[in-house]
Write the structure tokens for this entry.
Amino acid sequence: MRPYFTRERFGRPQFLAGLLLLCFLAQALWLAHAELRAGHEPDGAEAIRIGEGWKQLHGRGTAAAPYLNPDANIAVTLDSFDTEQSPLLSVLSAAPLLVWPRDFGGDAAAYWRWLPRIPFLACGLFLGASLWYVARRLCGNTGGFVALTFYCFSPSLIQASAVWHTEPEIVAAWGAFGTIFTAIAVAHTLYAPREVVLWNWRRIVLLGVSLAIAVGSQFSLIVLAPMALGFLLYVAPVRRQAGVVIWIAACVVGFVLLFAIYFFHAHAFAQSMRHAEFWGATWRGFTVLGVYKQVAVQIGRACPALALGLPVAVVTYGAWPRTRYFGNTAPLLVAVLFIGLGMAHPHVAGAGFLLAAIPFLFIFVSGVLADLLETSYRPLVMACIVGMMAAYVVWSVVNLAQVPRG
């Protein structure tokens, strides 16, 4: 049996990647601290999420199916059912509070309010680790470090992980990223001469878990199911029947896990699915120039370095056929599709799609830059990358330090 703790698995690259992820965690903790230091009670959507999750965990109903006290800022039906999300985010927010031994009033808020942030901070770390693993496999160590640096100093991803005046779309982004690249990984294993379904049961479960996380966080991410099937059929065209069987098995696993989010309450689950908006897109946004400008602003806020890196990557991709291979094309196509869906969804789902597109843009840009580093212009390209990344890191840290407390 091969040892698990080897230099290939835990060497210098993994150590440096771990340091970058610790920097990401430190920034997210600082941002959460800046908000929670004032010691105020939760407000708005966060308070409703915690209250609904607490209700479900104590057997007094199902979170958001229906709401006890719906807020005007939350997408609900006349029956007070959440049309865009399952109880997943509510349960995640409230579950850590089960360990709190005191009441939730008075000055204690400055302490117990850290607990609902823990699951989302963990999701941010998991997404960063997943991004590093995929980028390193596709682009090598240098491309992996570029993608991870993009991620670890991204203002939008730090904000989403810290749940700083925003919805925790980081869970949906992690689920979407996991679904796409797990489907691609499963498809590659279909070339092995083994019993396909039984051999792949771990990846099938992982694909089902990713689907459940994504759809449970945002119903409209059901589009990931046909996307996963498309990648399975494209990457492994010689074993399409096996790919379909694996996809069906993963969907069944995802469905069971989604049902489990409702604690297997069949009536609440059925009613929630009846009210859910699995599409909810409108094409009016594509006719308004301001929507395109807003999307560009959101991408720039997510990672200012993309203002330089993304145009360079797109031009290089269009002009240099060597960069137009699957490892670059797949994340680009997914990112473009998510951006389009973000424009088509005017409510919370739109922000979720836009945030989910960012990690795929990081993979695409880092892949093209890694290809440029293999040319005779490597010294010049490396100098430009180092300068861009250094300026990006300094800008992000300086702006984070200026966040007002309270």
The chain has a mean pLDDT of 89. The chain has two domains: 40-112, 171-401. The chain has 17 helices and no strands.
